[in-house]
UniProtKB/TrEMBL annotation:
Keyword flag Transport: yes
Protein name per the record: Protein YIF1
Membrane topology recorded in Swiss-Prot or TrEMBL: Multi-pass membrane protein
Family listed: Belongs to the YIF1 family.
Gene encoding the protein: YIF1A
Location(s) in or outside the cell: Endoplasmic reticulum membrane; Golgi apparatus membrane
Amino acid sequence: CNLAHHRTGRAAPPAGDSVLFEDTSSAAPAMNNQGYYTPGYNMGGTSNDMQGGAGVNNLFTDPMANAAMMYGSSLANQGKDMVNKEISRFMSVNKLKYFFAVDTRYVLKKLMILMFPYTHQDWEVRYHRDTPLTPRQDVNAPDLYIPTMAFITYILLAGMALGIQKRFSPEVLGLCASTALVWIIIEVLVMLLSLYLLTVHSDLSTFDLIAYSGYKYVGMIFTVLCGLLFGSDGYFVALAWSSCALMFFIVRSLKMKILPSLSSDSMGMGSSAKPQLRLYITVATAVFQPIIIYWLTSHLVR
């Protein structure tokens, strides 16, 4: 009895002593009869997370990685600067913003001048320190907001007119839009070529020519609307009115841009022919507008 009691006392450690190894056998996952662990036991999950975090920290603390990131950022900035430089060669973003510097008051007054130019008296473009004022400050300054919005409205109105006549299709509408855009490009190129061949020094830029050429869409919208509402008679009356108003507007506007330089060339050789040629350019540009209006709107009204 004493021997058994002595063995029993040696088998159980004292309650106050510390345990060197924790017994985790009770927490181990159960094994099935095929010798595999049952699902739900994540083995080594904590160590993977720790390794992933350490990898990210090593990426940011590695000098080579930081140098590579800085080099890639510098290459991206250089590429952005090159793209902006190439764009600036053909198109000035700041100058483009100038043509869209409009407000509601300017748009309303400009539309009234386009439709009723005969009542407008002062056509001179104002300057401030050799810089033209923005459209919102000068109603005579050309803009690109009205031509852009008028072009979009014309395409939408053409789609509605074709739908009323049951002739609408995406191909026909796309052809209508592309034709209107091509006519603008041709007109601007012809004007630039004429000014270059005649060595005319004027304040007209490419954006100015696009603006003056795009104002015809306002008259085209008015013509198509009258044709849809009042038939062919209303169409031709509106065509005559918008054509005359646009021609008057173009002549008075371009007169302030092209013809003022006549006095500066009056001292040169052969200058007697240049004033007439410049006047012909202005008049030809104005007379060409009704032809384009009729070409782009006649098929929409039947």
